[in-house]
Specification:
This protein is of the alpha+beta class. It contains 4 helices and 10 strands, in the order E-H-H-E-E-E-H-E-H-E-E-E-E-E.
């Protein structure tokens, strides 16, 4: 396994093609068409962790973002994890786990975020909990073309950074969700 953390604008054409193929394998058209978030505008990642297997195939990916947001109306630097995907044929082999570990280390060590946030479906809560992510039971607000709205599609989870992870309150991402 080979892991790379790269700014998304610096991905090569080959890396972009591999990421597009991985996305199509993980989220085929029928899955995307039924997604509850299909009508939302999502923020693109600033950085990506690319995981390559021994054959040189891209098998997993985690996107990272850094955003100036707010917690209970106080400005905070929030790290984001999104666009997580692992090829269905290699799930359970530790690829996503390795990528999540590298991504959270980069957010905490390199970007020095106050805390990090991700949103996921209920069945993924145990997976992220293994890495220290905690349920956020407060309110999460995001921006969409029609204006600010409360995000209620997936479950928010938080991870400590330079401060303890907030468990409740109001987080405003001051932008699109990831």
């Amino acid at each position: 396994m080979r892991l790379e953390l790269k700014p998304v604008p610096e991905l090569s054409d080959d890396e972009r093609r591999a990421l597009k193929a991985l996305s199509a394998a993980v989220y085929p058209a029928q899955v995307t068409a039924a997604s509850p978030g299909r009508h939302l505008k999502w923020a693109p990642p600033d950085y990506g962790v690319l995981v390559w297997d021994e054959t040189g195939s891209l098998v997993s990916y985690v996107g990272l973002l850094v955003r100036a947001g707010s917690l209970d109306d106080s400005a905070v630097r929030i790290g984001g994890i999104g666009s997580v995907k692992t090829h269905p044929h290699v799930e359970g082999r530790g690829y996503a786990s390795a990528a999540i570990r590298l991504a959270t280390a980069a957010l905490n060590d390199d970007h020095r975020v106050e805390f990090s946030l991700l949103v996921c479906r209920d069945h993924l809560l145990p997976f992220y909990s293994r890495f220290g992510w905690l349920d956020f039971t407060g309110r999460l607000f995001v921006e969409q073309p029609a204006g600010r709205l409360e995000f209620t599609i997936n479950r928010p989870m938080v991870l400590a950074g330079r401060r303890p992870a907030p468990r409740d309150g109001t987080i405003d991402l001051n932008g699109a969700p990831w």
